[in-house]
Amino acid sequence: MHGIEALLNLGGGKGDTFISFRVGITKIRTEVNSVDCIFSPYHYGFASGYDFLITSWLTAGFDGSFMYVQGSSLNKGGFNNELKGFSVLNFLATLQLKF
């Protein structure tokens, strides 16, 4: 997934909460009808998370995101190959070192 993100940081207390909107292009390589295909559908979705300041140089955080990848079609090998749209739900825990 490649794209851009619009992010809003809501600081307060010992950490930062953020909400964001993400949009971009996804590269998917798969085999359809015995033909190697590379699809490039658009994706978009939302993410939200929290970063907790442990020390001045260490932060622990987590975020979750929901992304929708649109369907795509490709005419290759004499076939019209279809990729159905799908959703991705992602959770991530992080440790950040700040130098």
Overview of this protein structure:
This protein is mainly β. It has no helices and nine strands. The chain has strands spanning 2-12, 15-25, 28-32, 35-39, 42-53, 58-69, 72-76, 79-83, 86-97. The strands form three sheets. The chain has a five-stranded antiparallel beta sheet with strand order 1-2-5-6-9, with no helix packed on it. It has a two-stranded antiparallel sheet with strand order 3-4. Strands 7-8 form a two-stranded antiparallel sheet. Strand 7 and strand 8 (79-83) form a beta hairpin. The radius of gyration is 18 Å and the shape is elongated. The two termini are 28 Å apart. The model has no long low-confidence stretch (mean pLDDT 90).
- Mean pLDDT score: 90
Q: Beta-sheet strand percentage?
A: over 45%
Q: Looking across the biggest beta sheet, what order are the strands in?
A: 1-2-5-6-9
| Distance between the amino and carboxyl termini | 28 Å
Give me the Rg, rounded. Answer: 18 Å
Runs in which pLDDT lies below 50 for 5 or more consecutive residues are none
- Helix and strand pattern: EEEEEEEEE
What shape does the CA trace take?
Answer: elongated
Largest β sheet strand count, sense and barrel closure: 5 strands, antiparallel
Number of helices: 0
Helix % is under 10%
Structural class: mainly beta
| SS elements, strand count | 9
